[in-house]
């Protein structure tokens, strides 16, 4: 991966953390890693009393594939497995779900504009 690509991903994750806080969720972990995979963000939606694992996907405006289209069955299985490990490790006994924050970057001078779409509970999508 190029440095520019990695920087774009880091900036998208920072934008996602800001969005988590705007939603009023409590940030529990970032980049949680286990043998089954990684979770970008784990947060607690205290209003709904639900643990939310957030996958952040970022693409630039002219990418062939939209960020929300970049999650396939294999990635979903990885996210579910890592989510289960997180739940076990933290002792969480309530409901939990996996949300997608699809971030599109619109590069322009002098700064990049961003659009974040929140797709809740992506394992329930049909």
Description:
- This protein is an alpha+beta fold and 126 residues long.
- Strands 1-2-3-4-5 form a five-stranded mixed sheet.
- It starts with a helix and ends in a 7-residue tail after the last strand.
- 30% of the residues lie in helices and 39% in strands.
- The protein contains two helices and five strands; from the N terminus they run αβββαββ.
- The model has no long low-confidence stretch (mean pLDDT 89).
- A hairpin with a 4-residue loop joins strand 4 (96-107) and strand 5.
Share of residues in strands: 35-45%
Query: Which CATH-level-2 architecture?
Result: 3-Layer(aba) Sandwich
Shape: globular
Number of helices: 2
End-to-end gap: 31 Å
Which features characterize this protein?
single chain; 2 helices; five-stranded mixed beta sheet; Trna Endonuclease, Chain: A, domain 1; alpha+beta; 126 residues
Secondary structure layout plus pairing:
Blueprint lengths: L2 H20 L3 E9 L2 E9 L4 E11 L12 H18 L5 E12 L4 E8 L7
Parallel strand pairs: 3-4
Antiparallel strand pairs: 1-2, 2-3, 4-5
Quick structural summary:
The chain is α+β, with helices and mostly antiparallel strands and 126 residues long.
């Amino acid at each position: 991966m190029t440095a520019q690509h990695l920087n774009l991903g880091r900036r998208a994750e920072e934008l996602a953390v800001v969005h988590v806080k705007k939603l009023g969720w409590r940030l529990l972990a970032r980049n949680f890693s286990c043998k089954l995979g990684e979770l970008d963000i784990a947060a607690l939606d205290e209003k709904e009393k639900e643990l939310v694992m957030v996958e952040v996907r970022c693409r630039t405006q002219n990418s062939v594939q939209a960020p929300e289209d970049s999650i396939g069955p294999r990635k979903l299985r990885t996210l579910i497995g890592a989510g289960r490990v997180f739940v076990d490790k933290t002792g969480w006994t309530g409901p939990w779900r996996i949300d997608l924050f699809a971030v599109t970057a619109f590069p322009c001078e002098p700064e990049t504009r961003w659009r974040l779409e929140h797709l809740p509970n992506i394992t329930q999508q049909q």
